[in-house]
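Exercise 7. Given the encoded structure of a 176-residue chain, write a plausible sequence.
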């Protein structure tokens, strides 16, 4: 299957160092929504793996997170596309879970859901933790410069990391 996995904040929507705590703080990147729709229309399954420690921190609840994801699904649907599985880690950095990136638990959940192998699957993120999670399960690490991407680019990257301006550029490559 043609599977693409995305980080959420900084890739699909604007990132915020103050957390995205309410639906009206979830600001989509229009070209990313369009990119997901284009990929979907071309037969790609687009899944999402997102750290949401703001839940553990009590900044927002699961219902609020789900309202953001319903909005995301709606925006992509309005452009004739579809988003696949969205998995989130609700834990904090000290909870010792297996899902919080840089661990790869969410990527494994996605692979299990689709009964597919992760090797070579592109995982697109804007943080070092995304790239490390990708590497841990043999995904292709892909960095975009949106969100924290420019900051991440200033640090050492895992070998073989591909770098694009944004998700639209990733889609252009995959669809070319
Ligand atoms: Mg991010
Ligand atoms: Zn977790």
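Solution.
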């Amino acid at each position: 299957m043609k599977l693409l996995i995305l980080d959420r904040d900084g890739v699909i929507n604007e990132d915020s160092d103050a957390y995205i705590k309410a639906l009206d703080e979830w600001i989509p990147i229009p070209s990313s929504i369009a990119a997901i729709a284009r990929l979907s229309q071309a037969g790609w399954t687009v899944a999402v793996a997102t750290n949401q420690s703001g839940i553990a921190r009590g900044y927002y609840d699961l219902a609020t997170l789900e309202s953001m994801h319903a909005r995301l699904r709606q925006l992509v649907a309005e452009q004739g596309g579809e988003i696949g599985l969205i998995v989130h880690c609700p834990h904090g950095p000290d909870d010792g879970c297996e899902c919080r990136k840089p661990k790869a638990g969410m990527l494994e959940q996605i692979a299990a859901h689709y009964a597919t192998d992760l090797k070579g699957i592109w995982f697109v993120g804007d943080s070092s933790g995304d790239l490390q999670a990708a590497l841990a399960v043999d995904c292709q690490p892909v960095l975009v410069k949106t969100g924290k991407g420019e900051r991440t680019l200033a640090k050492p990257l895992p070998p073989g990391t591909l770098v694009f301006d944004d998700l639209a550029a990733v889609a252009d490559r995959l669809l070319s």
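Remark. The first helix runs from residue 30 to 41. Students should compare their own answers with the one above.
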